[in-house]
Fold each of these.
Amino acid sequence: MSNLKHAFNLTLFLFAVWLLLSGHYTPLMLVLGAASTLLVVFLAIRVAIIDREIQPVLLKPSVLFYWFWLAWEIIKSNLDVTRRILSPGLPISPKIFTVRAGQKTELGRVTYANSITLVPGTVTMDIDEDIFTVHALTQAAAADLERGEMNRRVCSVENVF
Amino acid sequence: MEEHLINNVLLGLLMMTGFAIVRMRSLLAVTMLTSIYSLLSASLFVVLDAVDVALTEAAIGAGISTILMLATVALTTDEEKAPRHKPLLPLFVVVATGAALIYGTLDMPHYGDPMAPIHLHVAPTYLHVTPEEIGVPNVVTSVLASFRGYDTLGEVTVIFTAGAGVLALLGYRTRRRNSQNPEIRKMVVLRVITKLFFPLILLFALYVQFHGDYGPGGGFQAGVIFATGFILYALAYGLGNVQRIIPYRTLRIMMVAGVLIYIGVGIESMLLGGKFLEYRILADDPVTGQHLGIMLIELGVGITVAAVILIIYYGFVSRQHQEPPEDT
Amino acid sequence: MGAAVHILSWICLLGGACFLLVGAIGVLRLPDFYTRLHAVSVSDTMGAGLVLAGLMLQGGLSMVTVKLVLIFYFMIFTGPTATHALAEAALQAKLKPVVDDREP
Amino acid sequence: MYIVVSIVILIAIAAGLLRAFLGPTLYDRVLAVNMVGTLTVLIVAVLGFMTERPEFLDIALVYVLISFVSTIAVLRVYAHRNTEAAGGTTGPGDK
């Protein structure tokens, strides 16, 4: 039952993307768009990837709030990494360490891992269940991540998915 | 002026890449560099206003051919063999040919010269006739699918032959489901992101397919993007899982069906009393007929291209990580 | 609308260009593969983001902006995925990272 | 003004190219290709605006998807013979 709902949501989402891309709203194009959407949904069902992880969750308020927080983090660390790259002494202190991810679902963990990678200064190198190996450009960036604020925020967003 | 500057810089970068490709012995590095070469030349096509070519170069040059070259290198060796003889003679031949070619360009019209022969012969007719008779905003599509319909049919046949050739040479073997593969189970990020993107890539391919009339795009590019979607799925979930959705059988049918759709449109127009591939006969209104014909043959092209690329990919990859075939 | 948006878009575009340059310098300057990943991160996030934002401001509310948003959306998801896959592959290939053991 | 941005992107592409030449490991080269891919997306978008034909954005969209898939392909195709690909080179990355 819930699979049907997910398939329906995916159909709506894909058709919306088609309408946004297309820009030609003649009957023929709309029919082709609907046919394309249905074909893609059919293929997606065949590969059995219709589940809750495929949901377009970007627009829920708490997720949106997380994006803004992440954007701010990215800006801050960008400025930091930029300063280090440009200073003549190249003041970096690379470090490899592990963090524990508190998320329950795969999508949650992937969100956390990709958020870590998106922020310059830290890159997720390896994921073993809930243990992430992270490479940090500086000890400071590592310490920042180890404080675990991002982990907590992703955890609280995860429930919305 | 500005475009000239960018052109020249891009040409310079292309030359640097070319020299580096010649110098390198590692075939892997060469593959990476050819991918960059494709990206750069696609940017060059954009500056030259050749949008459709740029799209094709992006999809085929930077995407599919890199993947297929890698698959080839994976089946052979990573290192180019050291040449057995001094490269003096080949160098001479190349320099002489290059000099002859450059000498030849001295007589060519300047870039963008409106009086160049190429702009005086058929091009003006295409440009004038397209809006009235075909009614398609993208002239490239009307030239490709209508004015030069025979030509394109030939190209599709070439692609079909390539697919048939790969099938004949490499044969095919269907992989059992390999979702238990521990290596694949590990790549969580790739799997989740693939889940998100697989439907989007396919939808985008269909968008490119059906909007070829209005902007850059059409069957060739769409077929490649469609196949790329499945290749991404194969990379994340293993070849066996993709073959479960699109088995060889389906691909072979698709490969033939595409060409048959194309030829079928031609025959249909003959049955209706026109010439082979004379689309305007297909509907009461000639413009609608042209539209319909172009759409159908583009669809045929897209189906064949997607099927052939997947056949080639399956053929190459199913040979890897596997025991050598019985005959060795 | 008008002049203010125009100026803002140029600030974005030029700022993005600066970050792209920083990324390029970093890719050449940093000592090993793993540290270079961070430089690419800079140009992928701030560089690309600001350039696209600048173009979006130029495009206004139109089809163009929709496509730019889609490009941005794709980049946000594919960028880190590719970077992570790269780092993972290098780690599994036992490519040794430069590590600084000094305490901060 | 677009010209300034395009030139900066070209300079960055040149830097990426240099990294692809220098290596020293396969991974550095893949990184360089990936970076050049992103920059190509940007330059296509900027050039589209410069020449006032923003429909070029379709091409940029294709690039994002394609360059992602080919990066992944490189890594996956070589996953099983990684050790050779990373070893046997000398450079700052291996010290």
Amino acid sequence: MSERYSRQTLFSPIGEEGQKKISSKHVLLIGAGALGSANAEFLTRAGIGKLTIVDRDYVEESNLQRQQLYTEKDVLEKLPKAEAAKRHCQDINGEVEVEAIIMDGTALSLEPLFAGVSLVIDATDNFETRMVINDLSQKHRIPWIYGACVGSVGMSFTIIPGVTPCLNCLLRSIPIQGMTCDTGGIIFPAVQMVVAHQAADALKILVEDYDAVRPGFSTFDLWRNQYQTMKVGRAKKSDCLSCGEAPTYPFLTLENATKTTVLCGRDTVQVRPPAPRKLQLEKLGSDLGGSGFTVKSNPFLLSVEKDGERMVIFSDGRALIHGTKDMVHAKVLYQRILG
Amino acid sequence: MSERYSRQTLFSPIGEEGQKKISSKHVLLIGAGALGSANAEFLTRAGIGKLTIVDRDYVEESNLQRQQLYTEKDVLEKLPKAEAAKRHCQDINGEVEVEAIIMDGTALSLEPLFAGVSLVIDATDNFETRMVINDLSQKHRIPWIYGACVGSVGMSFTIIPGVTPCLNCLLRSIPIQGMTCDTGGIIFPAVQMVVAHQAADALKILVEDYDAVRPGFSTFDLWRNQYQTMKVGRAKKSDCLSCGEAPTYPFLTLENATKTTVLCGRDTVQVRPPAPRKLQLEKLGSDLGGSGFTVKSNPFLLSVEKDGERMVIFSDGRALIHGTKDMVHAKVLYQRILG
Amino acid sequence: MVNVLFFAHLKDVVGKEEVSVEGNEWNVARLKEKIAADYGLEGLESVMTAVNEEFADDETILSEGDTIAFIPPVSGG
Amino acid sequence: MVNVLFFAHLKDVVGKEEVSVEGNEWNVARLKEKIAADYGLEGLESVMTAVNEEFADDETILSEGDTIAFIPPVSGG
């Protein structure tokens, strides 16, 4: 091994043997936002063999405050994040093979990418995609590392099929109406703290030191100075539909996916959640009002507007995104607000 | 404020008011290695008013595995780290004023830089410089944030003069013969985790939310899955020479500094610690042997060699660095091994 | 009595990090209902619960002196 | 008896994270000597000590059931 990795091989749980393993492995990184760009930089610097980055978005000015790798030039060029991340990673380490895939991650589009990878790292911004990753991880027996952050809060959990409970055991259902980075903000240190947890467990899995993998679900709040790792042994459910004895992988079916349709003859996309939600429109309206959105409401719907983008949200979770025919863009806007 | 900081101002403990404060403040960052480059990137992305980066070293290939910002091109150009960090920071955020100072940080050279700064962030690699920072922080009443990491271990503690104990209260003396990144290795996630703690407290201090500052000394080990925050209220000593009732700022005196001398007529620098140390040469020799150094020893000294650099270490802590007349370079090599 | 720890924004809504409340031999669901009513906390049904730093579900029975942490999952990234 | 937690590389030297040992009414210095002798730990004099997650010095007196953590300071960066 070259001098480049000398400080990493000096760390005895990795060593020269571990470095050889790292350089022979392939990681699938889903998302290239805050968690994604930082994970991409880490894996590249660590000398991963191959890195596949999937993202549907492009670099915007508001990303620069917390998303590593990206520069003002990427914003001016409106580069897709996956491509911008790839370019910066190659300036850092030309030995790493980086593949950039610009697409919306769904059960259908992600499944082929699971072939041959050693590890999947979650850097998405919504629970729907995470539940898809969770099912694909179980189906293909590939570990994945959940990570998420909002405000000064973050959490991480490593799922190893056949060993740990899965995210479906822990959450049971997709949580409703949480804060997102677009409604509650986000600070860079929260991102870094989540990535530190993901990256450490990624190294353990890549060097096959499974005993060292964090045996619990870690949560922290860097502003309120809280930290806890919750043991999860008891959470594993034998009847879990994702990881139990008779799995059906429910999140791989079309009925559990968010649907988007371009409304005929209008510059509008309708976004429909998998199952009707019961949104508390009044609370959502006041949260969004506090987050810089212009909000109008009546008992049946909210109309919210920001930066020239207008969206109408119904209490069953359905939404109309005005001014676009781009279904992926509409889903991005929807999930930024509703998680 | 521009769209650039929108997700940071959405975070209510910062808000627009906090952002204005951040953009009016000046931070002194001492060190531009692993902790330094990551802190520089964070402060730049967060929109600090002015950032002064002090470092004595240049970018090497073995830095790339854990030091943010730097690329292969910086290694080829052997750029000083402070200058390389400045260039990358300006690609990220042209609004921030970045000052790069290439020098060895000592009591004498650092003191003038404390004038007018709001906060000092520690990104050094040795306790001697930290104790100098600690004394200057007390003398000039400026908060500073200690951070350090080796292997998978890291720690952070925020010192606010007049409020918290200082590092001298906690450590009493400079700890002897610990592991350094050059002897125990270092993994990127340990760096990120320390920086997450430093960065969060930096934001709190910059927006003047002192009540939120982490009220303790946090330590973690990401491989062994340990985390603890130790309360420190009881550690404050009224007779502490750095922060007590009659401070003398002992680490600002010349007798408490490491001395370097070019040996007359030889291509060798002698490095002498402030007070004689009692090194366990046998243990040090076997540690260094395990870390890739070629070691020869007799009961009085160790001769160690790596990458063409040769150093002779005596049990009282004195060392001869062969093949150089550069006193700063000699001190860098010495502190890399002996902390 | 049991101790209840509030993580993240729940701490702000309640106004403190920790409260000591009745709850011995209750299940988690009952405690959640009581806490929701007493402190005006919404959405506790989708908040994760740890009892003495171990995962717990709504049916978990509490004992005297237990520490219950309510941890709201987040989705950003 | 008191519980002793070993942080970082101390855990590897001792071979476990936690041990339960005699120590009631001892001071920290005496506990350090005993632990150093029993487990072959070197350099404990420059290791930080927390008793029940609070900073302690060599003179701090221990009580039955206390948890003592030994935390080696690191200097890298």
Amino acid sequence: MGEFWSRILQNYPYVFALALFAIGIYTILTHSNLFKKVIGINIMEGSIYILFIAAGNVRGGVAPILDMTDTTLTYVHPLPQALMLTGIVVSVSVTALSLALIMKLYRFYGTVDAKEIMRIRTEVRANGARIS
Amino acid sequence: MTDFVLKRMVALVLPFVQMLGLYVIFHGHLSPGGSFSGGIITGLSLIAFSLVFGLERGHEKISERLMGLIESFGALWYGAMGLVGVLRGTTFLMNKGAGVPLGEPGRLFSGGLILLITLGVGLKVASTMVTLFNALMEEEE
Amino acid sequence: MALAFRDNLAVLVVVALLSTAYIMPLLTKIRRFRVAEYFAVAMLGLALSGGIYLAREILLHGTFTYAVGGWPAPWGIELSLDAVSGFFLITIGVVATPIMLYASVDLIKEVGSRSRAAWFLTLFLLLVAALCGLAVTGDLFNIYVMVEVATIASCAIVAARNDATSVEATFKYLMLATIGSGFVLLGIGFLFVLTGNLNMNFIAQELSMSWQKYPTALWVCLSFFMVGFGVKSALFPLHVWLPDAHSTAIAPSSAMLSSLAIKGYIIALLKVFYVAVGAKIITRLPITDILTLLGMVAIIAGALFALAQDELKRRLAFSTISQVGYIFLGIGLGNIHGLTGTFMHILSHATTKALLFLAAGAMIKHTGKSRISEMAGVGAAMPVTVGAFAVGSLSMIGIPLFSGFVSKWQLLLGSLANGNYLAVLVLVGGSLLAAAYLLPVLRMAFFERPLQKPVVANVSYVQLAALLFLVVVIISVGVVPDGVLQLASEAATALLGLEVLP
Amino acid sequence: MNPQVTDLLNIAFLGFLVVIAIAVSYVKDLLYAAILLGAYSVTIALVWLLMSAPDLAITEAAAGIGMTTLMIAVISKIGRKVE
């Protein structure tokens, strides 16, 4: 096995993280269903969290909870974990906001499909009327 | 929903879920978890009640007005706790340096202001989850 | 150790705004709605005076840092207060206060219901607080959090009008902005992996020693930042969300978003590029040339798109894309005049675009006409409002004695210093195009004879006061720019590192 | 745990994440998609448990279930099937 591949193997979490990031963005951009776009956002953000945590991980390290009795332990880096906690909070709030918006759009248009909404809007605009 | 088994099970399990939520909030500075996860668990227990027994009975338990008050209170509480340090002549969110007794590490009542802040944030998160759910489930305005 | 008042001031500004945001739901329940609105205006005014005081302290005593919670720099969150923060705090205060004053007049009628108006106030203050946070923070992850708060708040205030088009625009904005923040977070992750730090000064030290080892990784990381912040601040090819979002929102929301929210992301980009990575490395990578190029394309393309619009607010929204191009052009130039021009343009575009959107909002609301071709005779009917619009237009074009001229002049000097004559041409062309898309509005309003005289309700004096405040700011910055210019060039030197003094 | 075993489990879970993420594109029923998101969150929580981040694991599990609940609340209003 070449040196390149062994390095890839050693850093496997990053590979998976980037793959998930790409899948997430693909889901956001290609699906016309708004609901699946939201799920795509969650996939994308989850992948970034994996990247961060993998960056702070130490092989054979233990969780960063202070153990007063044993001073020989190797702890993993606690900083990325604290940060990703914030990241999760952010992604929950983004999801909640977008779900609220989806509900409103459903009330206005009766559908949650982006193409359908676009079609209804152009039709209404052609008729010169306003959507309630 | 009129499922007898579901209702009995939820009635049985909910107190323990709420207990778990409060445990996670209170032990945020000692063990994994903390205000956000504990707050979500607590909020989800209230949501589960509304889901199974209906929104009206959920509102009977805790009114929306109270939820709004708790939400604002949680955020303001965080600011107030942060200002303790400023009032004592040190920096924002200062804990030990502001003369707060820290207690013994590893005990529940230790860590000075952290426990108080966690409590406020947990309340805020729980009420926000419930408000969100109510807003999504509501009928036409 | 006892800390002075000025040390705590920065964090107090942010906390005061956040607390005010959460007091709003309580206050609007207990008291009359006006009380809450004027309380918000008063707090924004206090934040403005705090910003001015901080800027003065920074100019007199130099930059200083503040460790939140008493944890020193590599471990805790550090606020670093330099001329950049002072400048942006003043900009936020100067623009947000009159917008809030303008919004206070008939907010409930605009957004539809009392509870929604209360939430509008909360979100508005959250947005301002997040922007203040962006101005003062020295920590990379703190930047991400503030950017996210600003994004969510600004999405929500676009949706405040609660009609189909604005909600749809909001959803589009939210999706693209979230992709943008995904890229920003990925970039932060890369910088964290490269340097093991999140504090920007520590990252700069680390990178200055080791960046030659992995230039490709740094390059990829910076392009992530560029795409992420580019989406959020509507850099030209990534601007698609902006026209819908900014033209469908209510007037105070559009003014706030176009003038301040976008600038917050630009300040964040500036901090990442020039503080965290450092001017020496940035100017050596081709990324500045790309920024210059994109800026030039944005200036011309945004202006051409604006020319094609007949709806007044859409034209102003496309004009924002063009003006953001100027700012990115200045960032890309990377010399002292370019960056001074960038900062001056952040201020002058913020005030000018806020004035234009507010005046346009008043014109549209009181005449009921949203298209430029229908605006004949409006000037005679509401002379003060359209007069304010005229001042905004002249400043946007870059006529001397208005603030737009000062910033464009600095950008021109910067382009000449770099020998970039194409940029000079684009700057002049952009001004001509701005004249081409703004002056017809005035011609229509003042000189066209209407078929029938438009029926116009009186604009309230509070709103006129807000407009006049912005007019006074624009003209005073244009006539006596010395103080602001000094602060801006101080900020530019701070970003470039001290040895690049002219 | 033995580091090699941890790595193997990690790879397995990460691979499962990729499978879930791809599956989201193919399901036609929105309820299934929401449940897949719940599965995604729980699997991420397992990955973090293996990467010694129990704090995050609890939070992600709670947040994932919370988001799934909210999504199901929305689905109950907008209907399940994508035509």
Amino acid sequence: MRPISYRDCERNITLEPGTQNMKPETINNNFKTEEYFVNMGPQHPAAHGVLRLILTIDGEIIKNVEPDLGYIHRSIEKMCERDSYQQIVHLTDRMDYLSSHINNEAVCLTVEKALEIEVSERVKVIRTIISELTRIASHCLWWGVMGMDVGALTTYFYGFRDREMINDIFEETCGARLTMNYNIPGGLMFDIHPNFVKRTKDFITHFKTKLPEYDRLLTGNVIFQKRTKGVGVLTKEDAISFGTSGPVARGSGFANDVRKRHHYSAYDRVDFKEALFTEGDSFARYQVRIMEMWEAMKIIEQLIDTIPEGDIKTPTNAVIKLPKGEYYQRVETARGELGVYINSTGTKNPYRLKFRSPGFSNLSVLDHITKGAKIGDLVATMASFDFVIPDIDR
Amino acid sequence: MMMIPLNITKTIHDWLYSVMPENAASITEMLLIAIAYLALFAVAGLYLVLLERKVAAWFQLRLGPNRVGPFGLFQTMADALKLLSKELTSTDKTDKFLYNLAPFFVITTSLIALSVFPFSKQFQAFDINIGVFFLIAVSSIGVIGILIGGWSSNNKYAMIGAMRSGVQTISYELSVGLSIITMVLLTGTLQLSEIIEIQRTGGWLIWQGHIPAIIAFMIFMIAGTAETNRAPFDLVEAESELGAGFHTEYSGMKFAYFFLAEFINMFIIASIAVVLFFGGWLSPFGITEGITWFPEVLWFLIKVLIIIFLMMWFRWTFPRLRIDQLLTLEWKYLLPINLVNLVVMAIIIWLNLTF
Amino acid sequence: MERILFYIFAVLIVIFAVASVSSRKILRAVIYLLIVLTAVSGLYFLIDYNFLAAIQLTVYGGGVIVLIIFSVLLVHHVELELEITPLKTKIIAAALVVAGLSITLWAILTYPFNTANNYKSIEVDVIGEKLLSYGEGGFILPFEVISVLLFAIMVGAIVIAKGKKLGIKTGEKLE
Amino acid sequence: MSYFSDIYNGIKTLLTGMSVTGKYFIHARKGSLTQQYPDNRETLKMFDRFRGEVVMPHDENNEHRCTGCQKCEIACPNGTIEIIWDRGIDEETGKKKKKIDKHIYHLGMCTMCGLCIEACPTDAIVWAQNYENSVYDRTKLSKVLNQPGSKVKAGIED
């Protein structure tokens, strides 16, 4: 099938699967059906942001899904080539804005790796705790939106209620709720707030009573299970060959948690289970994220009481110049594996900086697994993928 | 055609007939009643919208509208005024006639259905001997408004919404009808006022018919929710899938008509449930039986509001079904259960096991 | 009063019947037809044939028209218009209509109608008993025949809807 | 038999879900998350570290701590800060010295990353907790941080 051009969408021309020309379809059937195009997005309530999906639909059945990107492209990678290494960090807040701290950490870890500086234990532990809090916050929002996409609007507010508590913790410590920019190459901008430990513990005790409620409200709900079980099934082979990562891959049984397999920060000393489900459907992805929230709480509980003393930043030069070479570091964001590749020529700016964002690879699966599904299935599958469009587009 | 005016309006009735020739007086009276109903239910619809927003807010840990007037009581009035003043837009190449007809179609059919309800002993505009059947008949037409509205918008989302609406309403009408028939079997009459009279002596029908009546009530609530296109059956306007479904392209007052019609339909479904299962305007255990000054319409409204609250509770708790699951629920679960229930009800009446 | 209403309904029926056959947009024609059928049910209400009126609304308004609209939605786009009928067909149709109309009018005008004195509306239970009685004036036979017919239609619909899968079984080539 | 157990389980899970929302409905008054924003201006207090906008504190003698070293201008990724400076002659020593004329801060371009405040060696600029930054005219977002007639506090440079 030849790719769909914009003009085709405008002229509403039907493309027959498997044919190169526009010859009318000769189906040996009494009812000849006509496929048509529907634009889902870029201003669609189900697309969380400005993702445009060009759907080829036959009635309710989806024949083809073509994502059309670029509506929120801000050329962050190019901007990074102009900025110094300290300045790059705050741009990554704007990529996957729901796990902004983890993005910052990825860049900082790469720079630290290149400079071969070792941050103190205190920094590592604090980074890990905040990363996990970020993960919970991101998953809270995802849970609310997942419910909303399948039609249960109330979940959105319950998810936000718990997310707001984490945001308050961040605001008290970092000064911002969403784009925190708390990491700098060599450590943290400033020490945690004195209330941080207490607030985090309060949150954990609060959230431990709320997470079972999530299960009661949505996970167990028969309609929700019908909507997600067996929908958008991604096999393990496809998960690997499409390069998916994060909860999407782990929902298909592809164990690739970076925290477990390529330790960074303080993940080597905490004990947690890698959330893994083998069904590969939307419900498995849902369960992975719910389990990740439990595991994240477990990690925080292990670390929060024993934050070691130490320097909050390792001194670096005011102008950081990375040695000539290529550097790569990966971290596990709430959406999957984020890789930062820096090609340095020894100057104060990177020669080339590339983000391997999880959302982009995950999006490529969408067409593959929603073919033949219904519009409602597409929405449920998209919700279970938890797209953040700036993460895909950058 | 039988017209039972309110006691209060008796004087107006007499006065009209004294000053005018008979035909003119009768037409004037009809018009007056129609205007009264229109005004009453426009206001009722608006306050149902407000109630929905408040209830939704309380379910969602919010406060809800509280800026316009005390407790936000005039919020929906202000919204209606705003919608009135808005431009009526339409897309290119719509079928203008049908596009403009659709909202009126929807709102008219819902208002017609309201005319047969006995809100109290005297408050009933049209006491027809086939009341229940008339309700089914009128509600079956309402879907046409949605269908032509969705088709003439020249919008694919609206079109899909309209198609879904057609499928949904045709299938669920069956369940609504069958569960109503189950209760009609118990009462032996289709006239709404008589159905209520039966409940005066024998207790509410849900008590008289016990098990099959309860099953019929549950099925009626599910199918009724689907019939009004509300969540969890709001596939017609599923905002995460179709934008706004069949009324995507409507703006201003035309949109408001669709919106109002949804709430009046909800009122109708709740009213049917109240009349068929919960004794209409009869007070529970006959508390206010002997009190002549007590407005019985209050009991009717309280019961209706409880049922409406239940439907709102559904809406703000459950996810939406998929279109094939919607049809599976109807044809594989509700319909067979309903048919069996009908037979059970017949047996119970035959063996005289009713309370 | 009733006379006025009757004429209103009659005018509505005639106008929209003509509009229905002369409209070039198919869905509009269907809606005009719906108005005609609703007006007819209004006539039934007028003479207190409430049950018949409600049947008219349910079966024609809610059933037949919805199905027609549904099929129109499936095959017609909003901009499509019907072709203009050739003149020859028009003339033939007009001649047929005039012939039919004159026969009907003749029949109506020459038949000695009795003025109905009975204003009592028919109770539903009477209708129900008539429908299921096999005595004189009973309708059990047509009732059953229609049931069988509807059953056959349902089976046919299922067979048509399942056409694709049957084709696979018989090994026909399918796209 | 699974037909009936399906129905039973389905209804059970639905009722469980309704019990959750129902619980919150009953506690709606107490548990409300909403803040009535413009009404609670008096009581609404931001956290100390909240990044509202960059300000330059002045003491009672109308003196600030900015030496015009331009480190913040260099640190800023977005060109938010512009420093217009001049060389003036110090009265005490008679030496030529860098002196700021205007420390211009374009709030409209600021991403609140905090790098300028990190970079400032003399803590001349700090975060303010002002959160109501919207204006009707975009030019109002460009602010001059040093007050007119202000000068550097003595002894900061060294």
